[in-house]
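Data deposition worksheet. Section B asks for the primary sequence of the deposited chain exactly as it was used as input, without tags or linkers unless they were present during the calculation. Section C holds the resulting structure in token form. Section D is free text for depositor observations; keep each observation to a single sentence. Incomplete worksheets are returned to the depositor.
Section A, Depositor: J.P.
Section B:
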Amino acid sequence: MFLQCLNPEEIAAIEKIGILKQFPKGFHLIEEGMVGSSFILILSGTVEVRKGMRGGKYKRLVELGPCDLIGEVGFLGVENRTASVVALDEVEVMEFEREVFSRFIETHPMIGMKAYRGIAEELARRLSQSDEDLMDAISWALASNKNSLSEPCVNVPHVPKLARRPQPAD
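Section C:
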């Protein structure tokens, strides 16, 4: 969780730079493809993160609720939003703009370090889950097409790049 490393005084300090917002059910908090530089901490309610697909359809990626973050990829520098976020019920959030947050951590570097660590841990957790979801999808696709595969899959051992470096001569 984003705030787990912070003590109550540090949380109160961060809270002062956030913008409290409320949105009704069905409201699009973030639109995929739009420019954005803030991250949002969900205080109450639930949202659905969606990825646009061909033909105007979308894929539901995840449902998020209180204490979850959204928009952190844009906050960290990816200019266009990578997914849409829609309120599933009434939602209360606190939004943090990149520039305001950057100025804040210049005067509060320890709080900034803890906050960025929380964001990094959340991103790492989501990436790990995405990897698992991708492997499930690949396994499903391979199982569905096993009759159409002409050659069996081969396990190739992974050799780390650092292990492939030339060794100095003695």
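Section D:
The chain has one domain: 8-133.
The two ends are 50 Å apart (CA to CA).
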